[in-house]
Design a protein that fits this description.
The complex is a heterodimer of chains A (about 325) and B (about 375). Chain A starts with 11 loop residues before the first helix and ends in a 13-residue tail after the last strand. In chain A, the strands form 3 sheets. In chain A, strands 8-10-7-11-9-12-13 form a 7-stranded mixed sheet. In chain A, strand 4, helix 4 and strand 5 form a beta-alpha-beta unit. Chain A has 2 domains: about 120 residues, 60s Ribosomal Protein L30, Chain: A; about 160 residues, PurM-like C-terminal domain (Phosphoribosyl-aminoimidazole Synthetase, Chain A, domain 2), CATH 3.90.650. Helices cover about 30% and strands about 25% of the residues of chain A. Chain B has about 375 residues and is α/β, with parallel strands linked by helices. Chain B has 2 domains: about 290 residues, Rossmann fold (3-Layer(aba) Sandwich); about 45 residues, no CATH class. In chain B, the strands form 3 sheets. A 5-stranded parallel sheet of chain B has the order 2-1-7-8-9. A 4-stranded parallel sheet of chain B has the order 4-3-5-6, with helices on both faces. Classes of the chains: A alpha+beta (about 325), B alpha/beta (about 375). Chains A and B meet through helix 8, strand 12 and strand 13 of A and helix 1, helix 2, helix 3 and helix 17 of B.
Chain lengths: ~325, ~375
């Protein structure tokens, strides 16, 4: 079975598609009500809300697919605000001719990813466009979550003296997608790191609630994300080249293809800017979580050269690390 | 890729740097030119410049193919892109290089069919898929890319692809090295010779430069230890008054070069006089089609008009390419010229000297590296 135009028409075919693939896989009482929107209770406090679109090509890649990525990406955007992610909505734009079996797998992995991350998919939308007007399927999401009291996390909060941590190797997702897309086979297939980071972040905040900045270095990679933080906070950031964790296969693929891992996207990594007094506790918490075993210190916030990121090279020299310019890797998320 | 680790050992590198720092430099400043843009970028990425003793000056040379492509050649490529039914194919950086009044990038956004390819054979494939269109490959590059273009032309001939042609702006590096030395505009005590070009032309290609100009030539790879060892060899030669060709990139470069690649170039192309941006005309420094292959020469296939070239006033790419000036000394650098809005070719290319200074140089707001 393939997706046909009438399945996006709003009529019976669409309702059958929704029941057959979405409602059954996502198993949520609010969703099952089939209303135009979902109504839910919230406690008092602050809400975080985000939206994201997913156009990754190919839709299946080692370590995930566009469905799990949509949940992980949305959950992570909320977690980076210090929020506890609660609900997600998902809008699907399906290309006529998409295999229903593919869609079924994708929605099932969304359901699994949502369950693992402890979030619910509570509303959705489906459109079908003629063949060639989209590429297989695109997903747009909205996510909402609650920010606990006492948490103030934001890109403007980095201060000189703070330390920069990451929860593992960099560049895995971008190289996994690129190698799959271009049909490049290295000794081992590079796996995407795509994962929901809210559990890890919760542990980190439990260990020390005064974390200044949390960011997931997706498109543009670690280099671009740190430049954003440096600009927002008006501080300089110094990275230590010898401390940057890069998997050997990712490094090899980067060498061959001429990429710098610092600019390659991640989907399961968090950069944490932490005041020194909380550093030990945060690092210990990170290492205690399955997604943070390889956590390490990669840099520090400095007062000189505000707005810029430098790298201390492994031989002791320095160079600027600029934001990504142009399009290094289109459609990686 | 583990085999590269041994060329990245930080402790060995620190030892070599210490060795250089302990030297007395009785002959004063030693000026070394890295010809190749890939070396320029590698030097920046390792932060090597600031670690060397102040007596050693590294000067970036003309070894970025995009940067030395003459303005008139860019203008001709743009003219070709304007011709009805033409598909222009080329490597990525070139499309953004500003010509006299436009660029291939701008032409594309107003409707010209300009496609970026990663290999010349891809361009040939586009020609086969579009038999009713003329597909022109804008061929730039040094001895490294020329063999692949010769191979594509030969394949086009074998397959009988008649709608494929190449606009050849290929350049040969040794003639440019001689021209820089002849000009005496900048004092050079040694060359860090390009790694990739040398794989094709071989270490022996520099013998005549070392002999006639008494300038040592050392070929190195691109890891920081490669480059440091190359610098140490050059310093040793300068201090002991020798001028020899040393191959410090033996894992890739032979004395004779890659004979198959050289034969391919020789079958299709012959050396011709050509103009280098910033340097001017250099005898026998370009590659033109041999008579038997002229049917693939875009310059022959299309009757191109005379081009009147206009340089951006204030752009000092010429001085930068000749090693006379460093990018931060240019009035446009960082102020109006940036990778987003490049005024000259050295800012466009990933391997251009200005682009490298812009992206990597810590103090590129000021001129901290003396030159000229």
């Amino acid at each position: 079975m393939i997706i046909q135009l009438d399945q996006g028409s709003g009529g019976r075919a669409m309702h059958e598609l929704i029941d057959d693939i979405f409602v059954s896989a996502l198993q949520n009482p609010l969703l099952a009500e089939r209303n135009d929107g979902a109504v839910f209770e919230i406690q008092g406090g602050r809400m975080a809300m985000t939206t994201d679109s997913f156009v990754v090509d190919p839709i299946f890649f080692p370590g995930g697919n566009i469905g799990s990525l949509a949940v992980h990406g949305t959950v992570n955007d909320l977690a980076m605000c210090g929020a506890k992610p609660l609900y997600i909505t998902a809008g699907f734009i399906l290309e006529e001719g998409l295999a229903c079996s593919d869609l079924r797998i994708i929605v099932a992995s969304m359901a699994k990813a949502a369950q693992e991350a402890g979030v619910q998919v509570i509303a959705g939308d489906t459109k079908v466009v003629p063949r060639g007007k989209a590429d297989k399927l695109f997903i747009n999401t909205t996510g909402v979550g609650i920010v606990p009291a006492g948490i103030d996390i934001g890109g403007r909060n980095a201060r000189p003296g703070d330390l920069v941590f990451i929860n593992g190797t960099i560049g895995d997702h971008g190289m996994a997608v690129l190698c799959k897309r271009e049909g490049l086979a290295f000794e081992n297939e590079i796996q995407s790191d795509a994962a929901a980071l809210n559990g890890l972040v919760e542990l980190m905040l439990d260990a020390y609630c005064g974390i200044h900045v949390l960011r997931d270095p997706t498109r543009g990679g670690v280099a671009t994300t740190l430049n954003e933080i440096a600009e927002q906070s008006g501080v300089g950031i110094r990275l230590f080249e010898e401390a940057l964790p890069v998997r050997e296969d990712v490094l090899g693929a980067c060498e061959v293809l001429g990429f710098d891992p610092l600019y390659v996207a991640n989907e399961g990594k968090v950069l944490a800017v932490v005041p020194q007094k909380g550093a030990d506790a945060v690092l210990a918490a990170m290492k205690s979580h399955p997604l943070g075993r390889a956590s390490c210190l990669i840099g520090e916030i400095v007062s000189d050269d505000p707005g810029r990121v430098f790298l201390r090279t492994m031989i002791g020299g320095h160079r600027l690390v600029d934001m990504l310019r142009g399009e290094q890797l289109p459609r990686i998320c | 890729m583990k085999y590269l680790d041994e060329y990245r050992d930080p402790q060995l590198a620190k030892n070599l740097i210490e060795r250089l720092r302990r030297k007395a430099f009785p002959k004063g400043e030693i000026r070394l030119m890295e010809i190749c843009g890939t070396h320029t970028v590698a030097i920046f990425r390792s932060g090597l410049r600031e670690l060397l003793p102040p007596q050693i000056k590294l000067i970036s040379g003309p070894g970025c193919p995009v940067c030395v492509t003459a303005n008139e050649d860019i203008d001709r490529a743009i003219w070709l892109a304007e011709q009805p039914g033409v598909i222009i194919t080329t490597f990525g950086d070139l499309v953004r290089v500003p010509g006299s009044s436009s660029s291939l990038h701008l032409k594309r956004s107003t409707g010209a069919d300009v496609r970026i390819v990663y290999a010349t054979l891809d361009a040939l494939q586009i020609a086969r898929e579009n038999p009713d269109r003329q597909v022109v490959f804008i061929g730039i590059g040094f001895e490294t890319t020329a063999p692949t273009i010769a191979a594509a032309v030969q394949q086009a001939s074998e397959l009988g692809v008649r709608n494929f042609s190449v606009f050849s702006a290929h350049k040969l590096l040794p003639p440019a090295m001689r021209t820089l030395l002849d000009a005496h505009e900048v004092k050079l005590d040694g060359f860090i010779c390009p790694g990739h070009v040398s794989i094709v032309i071989g270490a022996g290609a520099y013998q005549e430069i070392a002999d006639n100009y008494k300038v040592p030539c050392v070929i190195t790879g691109f890891e920081h230890l490669d480059i440091l060892q190359g610098i140490c060899s050059l310093i040793d030669q300068v201090e002991s008054g020798r001028a020899e060709v040393e191959n410090r990139y033996r894992r890739a470069v032979t004395w004779e070069g890659n004979s198959a690649a050289l034969r391919l170039i020789d079958e299709v192309f012959e050396p011709v006089d050509c103009t280098w941006r910033g340097i001017g005309p250099i005898a026998k420094s370009g590659l033109g089609f041999r008579p038997g292959w002229k049917m693939f020469d875009a310059a022959d296939r299309f009757s191109m008009p005379d081009i009147r070239v206009k340089e951006h006033p204030g752009c000092r790419c010429g001085e930068v390419l000749r090693g006379v000036m460093t990018p931060p000394e240019c009035g446009l650098f960082r102020k109006v010229c940036s990778p987003r809005d490049p005024k000259g070719p050295c800012m466009v290319s990933g391997e251009g000297t200005c682009g490298a200074y812009y992206r990597y140089h810590k103090d590129s707001g000021q001129s901290s590296v003396a030159s000229g």
